[in-house]
Amino acid sequence: MNGRPISGASVDARRHRARGRLALITGALLLAVTACGGGGGDDGGGDKDKNKAGSDKAKANTPSVAVVDIAPKDGAKDVATSGALKITADKGKLTDVKVEDTKGRAIPGEIAKDGASWKPESHLAASTKYKVHATAKDSEGRASAKDISFTTLTPKNTFVGHFTPENGDKVGVGMPVSLNFTRGITKPDAVEDAIEVTADPAVEIRHKWYGNDRLDFRPEEYWKPGTKVTVKLNLDGVEGRPDVYGSQVKSITFTIGRSQVSTVDAKSKKMTVERDGKVVKTIPITTGAPATPSWNGQMVITEKHKVTRMNGATVGFTDSEGEGEYDIKDVPHAMRLSASGTFIHGNYWASSSTFGSANVSHGCVGLRDVRGGYDGKTPAAWFYDQSMVGDVVTIKNSKDDTIDWFNGLNAWNLAWDKWEK
């Protein structure tokens, strides 16, 4: 053979080097397998994670089992303004409810603690289209929603409340809030719930019905000067009597001025005027004659007239021929104290010596004055100029009874515990 012979040592060296290269290749392959497998042990963890992820994805894609139910039905018309709107959830809990009219005004409401139902806080307005959106979630947190719209009924018969005082008025400390309704109310609770009277600074305010068409509000004591009183009427859609609905949404605010309380003593025939708790003037007066005594009690000035006519026939004082016992066409500085005709006013027809010494009227309180009321220095002119609607005039020591609280705006003559909370 040509060439150099191969020794045994050279063959072994080449075999050793080949085994080394094979070991390196095998190690690299094992590393690659380990990296792809995500772990060294064969415990099946990779398959479990894949199964869980797949299960979660499947649950997320499964429709919610929660069911939202809304009454009335979508598109319903002539829906009642109270009691007809009901929203509930089955196999889940309500999480969000919105009820709005087409102008975006929301009807507030509350979801029950168990999430099974939603209840509106107030009635709905009449002749109004509402949109409802309600969402519920099942035990897995999957949401289900429902949207509907409906329109409330249009009433054939309506009522409103005429209110005293007027919006923006500044009045005395004795002025109650009084509402007179144009129709008799046979569902007073519904009407009361639609009226809110608040004061700043806050004070407890109670109400009282007179008959079925008048509702008054007052605090326990006279208002504090500077108090801001707000009256909110949300009567639109309120069924005040069968098939008769309110048609009024209004907010009224008035302010209480300084305190003026005047006390007429029919026995001493003098009137003491207190302003913010201090006596500012004592005025001689005349009250009702023995045959026609004045009412006792706390009375509120409700009207002021520089000059007015007073005819006895309008308040039951007539002669044998049915004519008024008196008919004075130009009574000066007159301020009304009762609906039945009691005034505190200027008197020019009695002699000056009458005031402070005799009671000669038909029940009114008279102060010395001149015909036409042109003299601003007379007691009647001074008192008229110093008084405002809502001031209190209290008559005491007269021979008559105490005036009824509803005779005028004289709420203070009814005990506080007789007023409803």
UniProtKB/TrEMBL annotation:
The active site is at H345, C364. The keyword Metal-binding does not apply. One of its GO terms (cellular component) is extracellular region. Pathway: Cell wall biogenesis; peptidoglycan biosynthesis; Glycan biosynthesis. Pfam families: Big_10, YkuD. GO terms for biological process: cell wall organization; peptidoglycan-protein cross-linking; regulation of cell shape. Keywords: Acyltransferase, Cell membrane, Cell shape, Cell wall biogenesis/degradation, Lipoprotein, Membrane, Palmitate, Peptidoglycan synthesis, Signal, Transferase. It comes from the Bacteria. Residues 40-62 are annotated as: Disordered. InterPro entries: Big_10, LD-transpeptidase, LD_TPept_cat_dom, Transpep_catalytic_dom. GO terms for molecular function: acyltransferase activity; peptidoglycan L,D-transpeptidase activity. Residues 260-396 form the L,D-TPase catalytic domain. Residues 45-59 have a biased composition (Basic and acidic residues). The keyword Electron transport does not apply. This is L,D-transpeptidase family protein. It comes from Streptomyces mesophilus. The lineage of its organism: Bacteria, Bacillati, Actinomycetota, Actinomycetes, Kitasatosporales.
